Amino acid sequence: MPPRLQRGGRVPHFHVTDTSAARVAYDEAIWQRDHLLLVSLGDDDGDPFAAIARDLQGRASDIAALEARLVVTRDPIAGVPRPGAVVADRWGEVFAVIDEAGSTDADDLIEWIRWVQMKCPECEGEAY
To answer: CA–CA separation, 84 vs 76, rounded Å?
Structure first.
């Protein structure tokens, strides 16, 4: 089993089928284009992240306005908790890894994306 993703790590390039049966290729459709809000569901229909995912899917336009892409899948992804959620910037840097549904909700995850969207390289000493 690969090590679990950590804050500051990188999202692995993945290809999954989302819950609407669409194929998602992270490296082709999201990486270097949009921030990522990934919700990884378990196999159980009683998955505590399922309600969060439904709430997020109902707010897809809010997420898109933050230049982010929501991916909800039951497919396993190396290093991603299942069930769980990951927030990463457009370059794949991980900002949040959540594996307890009781510690987050849709508002919290959208706030993470908002924070990632507002983060600037100049503020962190990355400007050249």
So the answer is: 11
End-to-end CA distance of the chain: 38
Spatial separation of the C-alpha atoms in residues 20 and 84, rounded to whole Å: 18
Q: What pTM value is reported for the model?
A: 0.90
Helix (H) or strand (E) holding 24: strand 23-25
Delimit the domains of the chain by residue range. Answer: 15-117
Helix axes 49-58, 106-118, angle to 10 degrees: 60
Angle (nearest 5°) at CA 30 between 40 and 69: 55
Instruction: Supply angle C-alpha 126, 113, 66, rounded to 5.
Output: 95
Task: Count Cβ atoms below 10 Å from residue 81 Cβ, excluding itself.
Answer: 17
Instruction: Please give the Cα distance from 52 to 95 (Å, whole number).
Output: 18
Domain 15-117 is of which CATH architecture?
3-Layer(aba) Sandwich (3.40)
Beta-strand relationship, 84-88 and 35-40 = antiparallel
Q: For residue range 79-116, what is the model confidence (pLDDT) as tens digits?
A: 999 999 999 999 999 999 999 877 889 999 999 999 99
